[in-house]
């Protein structure tokens, strides 16, 4: 199937998209939306479950793959503009336009590609990702204003209003699953001044997708985590810190840098990975016998020791947690395991690790399954 991209997804739910004639001329084969099976997150209070999806059902959402676009901190169709002090960590790409203005005074720690083969390839990957996100059936419909310390679990969210407004702090809770995916679908996105997104219990920036049918505006001094896939434009206002990617497929990414103090930031997630291992003793164990689980987290950032918490899971259920000690080891003891072969995992949930006068943020990780045999 080949047609001007997005036209198959110009329904209201996918973001109230503009007519296809408004698009930059481009024809790409659309990627069919994958089937989305149920089993993984609960709808937030007040959410309306999608048709056929029982309220409170747990769901698993497949990831939206950015492909070649993953290296881009900024990707625009027509132009990238900046004023003042802005730090971009990652590549800056524009295609089919060629305009990139404002660097310097802005600084780019990455490459700048202007309608060359790489820029065209990465824009094509971003279009596929946009269409994938737009084509996902929503698992819940929520009010226009989100945040204000609300906690949302993995899922695909839309709103009956024209767009999302982020106020205060929005907390995205992965519930101990580092692969948990959050997709937000709307025509517009506005984050208010000093608003914030917190990632909890293993949530990862790469798995937070904001599919915007028109344009996105990140407010002054806001802290934003996630990837904006906008059909038209993205504006990052003065002093905002964006951890993710600003992608404006048809128009402009505009950054308003600061004149003093910390620079406006647009940063591709570059957190060092971790590896979590899990052991237990004794194994096998008897019913009502205490079993001690030991999780070890290895970081890859120049020997710095990860800090944070480990969640211990029996199947998909979190049964306990413990902080990492100074050797990045956490232990948890329980005598409440039922009889049988218990599928145990440990999930590392990071917090910032102080390094000199800065911080290192390690990636969450999950151990391989450890089978704990519980006998009579």
From TrEMBL:
Q: Which family is it part of?
A: Belongs to the ice-binding protein family.
Q: Which UniProt keywords apply?
A: Signal
Spell out the Pfam families in the cross-references. Answer: Big_3_5, Ice_binding
**Where is the Bacterial Ig-like domain positioned along the sequence?**
278-368
Q: Which residues form the signal peptide?
A: 1-37
Taxonomically, the superkingdom here is Bacteria
Q: Which InterPro entries match?
A: Big_3_5, Ice-bd_prot, Ig-like_fold
Q: What is this protein called?
A: Ice-binding family protein
